[in-house]
Amino acid sequence: MTERTHVTLELDDIQRGVLSPRPTPYAATYILFRIDDRAHGRELMRRASAVVTSAADSMSPLGETWVSVAVSYQGLKALGVPRESLDTFAWEFRQGMAARAKALGDTGESAPENWEPPLGTPDVHVVLTALAPDRAQLEKAIDHARPAYHRLPGVTAIWRQDCYVPPDEAEPFGYRDGISHPAVEGSGIAGSNRLEVPLKAGEFVLGYRDELGGVQTPQPGALGRNGTYVAFRKLHQRVAMFRRYLKDSSTDPEDEELLAAKIMGRWRSGAPLALSPLHDDPELGADRIRNNSFLYEQGDPAGFTTPGGCHIRRANPRDASVAGAPRLHRMIRRGTAYGPPLPKGVLEDDGADRGLMFTFVGAHLGRQFEFVQSQWMNDGVFFGAGDARDPVVGSNDGTGDFTIPRRPVRRRLPSLPRFVVTRGGEYCFMPGLSALRWLGELED
Q: Any signal peptide, and if so, which residues (predicted)?
């Protein structure tokens, strides 16, 4: 699985949203569409192929701005993709995210019956994502994309979520986000961890060899090649609850920040505990060359520096042998904040909806996104912690705890509440540009 070969990706046919790290800061929006008329839906695909930016474009005509288009399983059906083709897509994708809720930990408050309409319904057919360095340029990007769906009465916009990444790149809980990005063979884009060997292209783009030597491609090849799967999720964050829990569990402000770092695996600045175990280091946290270049196995196998159950070590165990073969579960993760930030120091909820629009990108929904959610986020067996869940995003219910390895006596944070509630989402297929044209040229 570690033998490296030269791979040439067809970057001009891969959507830029698949491989390119996002600019900082930036504004983004997600717009969902329902297809009521097959012919108009196909015309939308044809027009979208002329609007979407490819991974070969280092700069789009609008600058550091681009548009991506993805289609759900119900969307492919609405477009009239033949059954023999639909059956070649990943079975998780065919079921849809709502049907996979139990496996993903979307239960209780996070269950599909509590999702924000129309998320989780068969009406979600197409997801258009636009992003730009600021709100003004974002509106230009949307104007640029509008001809793709303008004057198509058989295509209806049914939902929109505006999001942003602030200049300090902090997500609503206050941590610098968007730090980790894998290196993908043939992409020409450097990974954020200089110690990580680039992953096979087939882990993220369909039609190329993956880490197991296989090639996954929905059929026909004209539709599947150069595409990928994406999981969109709207995650509401209970910021005031998170702050109160840290405050109530700590002895003083310094201890509070240490607990926050132990729970996440990073200080709020983005500096990793692995490289700065005793105190925060904002300069390190802002350094894109150094802030993600570390491993766990040699220097900290027992988690005395970076707890095995902390968020970043669960999401990406790196070289940890207890995780089996972490490279098989590596994924591209994007997170974009939505809603107004809760002012610093406020410990009471103001009723505003705020959180993260999460996007997974990968060629294997099952062994990447779903495996990480079910086995690493919502279980602790892989590192010897029983049924312990991720302290930040796990489906906690007030009965679990978080353990911090420490000598001579470990520290335990009890009664973890659910800090993050799923408000909805969907599995989608992000076609290559030629596949968008293929969808636009379908005939009954």
A: none
